[in-house]
Amino acid sequence: MKQELYKKAIAVLDANFQDGGFTIPSAGLYPFQWKWDSGFIAIGFAHYDVEKAKTEMRTLLDSQWGNGFIPHIVFHTDNDSYFPGADFHQSELHPLSSKKYRSTGMTQPPVSGFVLQEMHRIAEDKNDMLNFIKEEIDKVFDNHVYFYENRDPKDEGLVYIYHNWESGTDNSPVWDDIWDTMNPPEYNFVRKDTTHVDASQRPSKREYDHYLYIIDIAKQNNYDDGKIAELSPFLVQDPLFNAMLIKSNQALIELYELIGGNEDKIKTLLQWQAKSIASFNEKLFDVELGAYVHYDLRNEKAIRHITSSSFSPLFANIPSPERAKVLVNTMMDKFGGDDRYLCASFDPTNDRFNPRKYWRGPVWINMNWMLFLGLKNYDFSNVAEQMKKDSIELIERYGFYEYFDCRKDTGNEKPTGYGGNNFSWSAALYIDMVNTD
Ligand code: 2M8
In terms of Cα–Cα distance, which of 234, 232, 237 is closest to 154? Predict the structure, then answer.
């Protein structure tokens, strides 16, 4: 059974790999290359097809703009089964955007640094992989320079995101607090996602109006970062995004040390790390909730909800061991229990929790993968084991879905996975988790 499933995971990834040298997250629903998906996918490929892993990352990094920015979607084809596509985003408005690929003008969590390190960890031929990393690593460093120079207006060591799609956790109830501060016009557009997936599992039309409106403001300003910082109604310091940046900084330090030379870059990375980690702990930790939370930089206030992102700093070694204990207690207290799989994407004790809807409660395998490794970092072996066991059990029971109900007992509803099926990062990280003790 396990062997069969492993083969199935490989088949999912191989079927989603495209001629252009990239992998779609899921056929129909997501027909292009997504930034953080690509990183997770490359980790899966590294276990059985190193060349595909390298190609995935090479193609993603090839989409980099002249200012170091790496976009969230690279539109390799003219496929019109996804909205909003290249014609809506118009990345060409930015003077330094890629001349080779059309893309969005927003980004996604900075996974590339730690992905290169994972690829090196997994590779059997370390020399060959290090040669590949030597070719690509400066692009990732330049991407981090972009973040610190353009996304940190107060010089705090914490970068902002200007759109919920930059977070990756697109429909999180956290964003409801921002939507309450906005009143966008109603847009006329044809949704494509709801032709592939039941509408009850996806964001609402009104939520999409907000998403499009923020992009319109950015477009009116040619995606200029300074203008976006000044005008975007959405400007948030996200713990998941910043934890991944910090994790990738650390990976770059260790990889540059392996490569040798590059002392100046290592020095810069160490300075970023010291500042970012201190600010992160000071500004984003909510003592009363016992968890890290998002900060609304536009309206200068914390958004006090607990999400699976609240625990992601474990992955980047951000909390002290004492604080890590507090975090794990919060996780087990609110998200744990015999009747639930770990780890819901949103606080199950909160009124906004919805176990079936996109990022409003279901379990996501990429989050579980990060939390599994984060728990191991701090030697919470039992909880880490449970995180891994639950992830594998969900996939074994339902298949390689995009997300899963965290409830073990769904009453009269037939339990199933949700969203897209044959989903690439669920397959890729299943492969990695079964190979990691
Ligand atoms: C989902 O996001 C896209 C927009 O980027 C969408 O809903 O159309 C999110 O889960 C995001 O994190 C993910 O990268 C993307 C592709 O899997 O799908």
Answer: 237
pLDDT tens by residue, 119-149: 999 999 999 999 999 999 999 999 999 999 9
| Cα 25 to averaged position of ligand 1 atoms, centre (Å) | 9
**89 CA distance to ligand 1 centroid (A)?**
15
* Residue owning the nearest CA to atom 9 of ligand 1: 168
Q: Which of 170, 176, 209, 385 is catalytic?
A: 170
Q: What is the CATH number of domain 1-435?
A: 1.50.10.10
Close Cβ partners of 258 (under 8 Å, ≥ 6 residues apart): 120, 130
The residue ranges of every structural domain in the chain are 1-435
Atom of ligand 1 nearest to the CA of 37: 14
pTM above 0.90, yes or no: yes
Instruction: Choose, from 156, 402, 405, 432, the residue flagged as catalytic.
Output: 402
